[in-house]
Each structure stands twice: as structure tokens, then as C-alpha cells.
Amino acid sequence: MTHPQANIEVRQSAFGELHMLSHLVGAANRADIRRLVALEKKIRT
Known about the structure:
The chain has 45 residues and is mainly alpha-helical. It has one helix at 8-44. The mean pLDDT is 96.
């Protein structure tokens, strides 16, 4: 992002890719939490 040859198109593209990656990581984290909660409930019963 700070490289002198990174023009606006490159910076916008990189930002967009990282933004979408953050959505994927968030979704995976939420899925992991759901699985963990389900396993904890199973252990208690």
C-alpha cells in the first residue's frame, strides 16, 4: 500500500481483496464458535 509504484488501482484492488478475506475469516470464526458451543453442550448432557 505504501510502495511508490502502487498506484490507486493497485491499492483499491488490494483493499478489496483484504476486505473480502476479512469476511471469509469472520464467517469461519463464527462457524468454529457454533461448533464449539455445540460440542460443549454435548459434553454437559
